[in-house]
Structure formats: structure tokens, C-alpha cells
Amino acid sequence: MSTAMNFGSKSFQPRPPDKGSFPLDHFGECKSFKEKFMKCLRDNNFENALCRNESKEYLECRMERQLMAQEPLEKLGFGDLIDGKSETKTEP
Description:
Blueprint (H helix, E strand, L loop, with lengths): L30 H13 L8 H13 L28
């Protein structure tokens, strides 16, 4: 019987995670922001457009604590919320 193992032919090359992959919040550093966002979603029938401020605050928390890469808020789609303006429009 031959159980030859060819370890030398190919070696594993580690690579960084794909964009969008980030460490879990094991210590709950941003748990309050996540809970606030989830409550907003539940209260608004999971219409995420109505919870953009909460989403922005959660991502800011993650970036501040190095749980995800620093990205400009404009690049994450929150450019309109930086000055405190909201994208949600009210109809007359």
C-alpha cells in the first residue's frame, strides 16, 4: 500500500480577507450600536433606508475600534448624513 503525501508540490499561501470581511465583535464593544440598529429595523418593518443613521453609527464604532478597515463615510454611502442631513424624504 502506498499512502504517498506530496506536501512539497503545493503550499498554502495565506491571503488577507476579502473586502467586507472583518473580525467579529467578540468583546461586544459595539453591541449597543448593533442593538439600536436592529431595534430600528424591527420598528420600521426592516426598511433599512429608515435606519441609515443607526447603521452609520454602528460602522463608525467598528472603524474606531479597528473591527473593520477605515473607510470614508462617503464611500460607504453615507455622504449625505455627514452634515446631519437625512436622505429620507417626507411627502407633502
